[in-house]
Amino acid sequence: MSIQETVFDNYKKYGKVYGVNLGNRPVLGISDPQLVKEMNIKDFHVFTDRNDFSFNDELQDRSLSNLRGNEWKNMRSIISPTFSSGKMRAMHPIIIDCVHRLDQYLEPKAVNKETIEMKKTMGSLTMDVIAACAFGTQIDTYNDRKPSEFVRYGQKTFTVGWRLLVFILLMSFGKKVMKAVGFKLTPPSVTNFFSQAIQSIIVQRKSETNLKHKDYLQLILDAKNKTLDTSDDKDIIGSENSEQIYGQSDDKTDNKTINKIDITDTDVLASSFIFFVAGYETTGSLLSLLFYRLALDEKCQQKLYEEIQRFDGQYDDYETIAKMHYLEACIAETLRLYNPVASLQRIASQDYTIESIGLEIPKGMIVNFDVETLHHNPDYYPEPDRWDPERFMPYNRDKLVPYTYMPFGLGPRNCVGMRFALMEAKTATAYLVNKYHFFRTPKTQIPLIEMKMQFLRNFKSIDIVLGISDPQLVKEIMIKDFHVFTDRNYFSFNDELQDRISPTFSSGKMRAMHPIIIDCVHRLDQYLEPKAVNKETIEMKKTMGSLTMDVIAACAFGTQIDTYNDRKPSEFVRYGQKTFTVGWRLLVFMLVMSLGETVKKLVKFKLTPPSVTNFFSQATQGMYVNFDIETLHRNPEYYPEPDRWDPERFMPYNRDKLVPYTYMPFGLGPRNCVGMRFALMEAKTATAYLVNKYHFFRTSKTQIPLIEMKMQLLRNYKSIDIGIELR
Domains in the chain, start-ordered, CATH in brackets? Predict the structure, then answer.
């Protein structure tokens, strides 16, 4: 089992307060909200320290996470102001630059419809952000061929594997054994790399006397040199939204207090290293899991997109993203469902008694507050395994049970970098959701496979695909840069009819075909009239399909068929229906296609049933780019109340309100549907004739709303039943 599974299993076996042994050392597990509050807030002075052992690693031992007593209190008072609202506002443009670099990496992959491994991609973003915001340096984190050393050593930090097993084993023997063995949890090559990297940046800073940096390292150096300025630390409007969910940050330390505390060079290195350790894997994991959930839940993704649009798509304004409640809720729910750590550890600094249950905790005992249990307890979060951002919306917060949510810890020792992590996550999410559409692919794991023996919650891979839903980008690709994106696909259907069809339509030929369509509509009329007289319910999908099949047979093949014979359907109709009823063939085709062009050619699987291509043959003798028409056509920013059918939108007097390049039922640019004129002529002719003669109305069989069929190549519904009568 994973660490998270072990923690939750202990709760199910033993309850909200239980004891286990870590080697020869007892550990108390607690998941009672009232005790969580008392011990982390009211009696925090007893449970201040996180551990009482050495990591045998100076960077680890001197980091804020592992300092104890007054040393922790002093360093916290120095570091807290570096994450104030004012400092976050100054760093925000740096994060935006990092997101732009991510966008440059993602756009061609979205255009080519590549599957993206989000864990690696979001890890590259957070590494870029850390390098820029913590160390003031820009690195190439998106080079797939030659990964940056920052990325390589960053991944090594959390890929501890066997080292974690050995570390836990040694820790169970006590502090003396740990110190004597000298074993380090973090690989020495990692700490050596980051120590040298940080030291070289510090040396470079000393020579740049006229250049003022706005990154975290500079803030720590200013604190060391007694020159840290906290005068700009004003609260951000809307920040109370985050504080209501995650708790408050203590960033109010004044300059006089900071200047009384001495910081060593080791403290500077350790503080910079912990910025990396705390900010790389956790935020990258949060973002990849958030986009994974959005890809699985189209409604939530659309709601988030609509919220971002209400703020004019502003992701580059620190104050604006603080006001996006649904964005906040999506992040909060992701952190609840996928809390990075299973539990928060504290050490009792003195004997302590839990009065409510009469339990005595001796000095030095480890106490674990079980985050996993609290976040997944159905008493606090109904259907806890369901991702539901609505839990954290302002109008539902009164339903949340206090002290059951702690992804950033709780009380005075909560995560000092919480504001930074949230700012980074919100900025990246707002930008990407505003531009891209995320959706699942055959490679998307449902559910995700959790990795074992990981210090932080981790998954094997998170694969999704990005689509483009930006009208300006659609215009550029489909019109301006059409020569680059001429082809619809790079693969073969293994079917000559699919690969070779290229009909030609012109106004003259449409005019010549129009009388043929009129004849077809007359035959439809002959079929409908007796039904209208008897006021029978008509299944319109089948009936209009018969009309279009009659038109195609007459106009394309010059033959007349009996498409309205209910007792003995025409073979044209039967094989025509088979063309689009692909079902399992579509699943197999997508699977084979995902394995590459070489495999597909070897397998020679055909999407269209061979019987269909054989019938019509005898009768007649790169990369992907998906433009999200569904998103464009149903976006309330372009079409208010998008689910309402309103022909007024397209009347001449309203066309100036239409947003260009958001409407493309026949495609766009030189490769739009070549048969568009024919389809429109057929539809207009049939509609004008039928509406002129018949009145259509709903009946008891009319489905409202229509039931859409799954796994269909084209949008399809089970049945469309309406009534018909003569006018």
Answer: 3-232+246-468 (1.10.630.10), 479-627+664-726 (1.10.630.10)
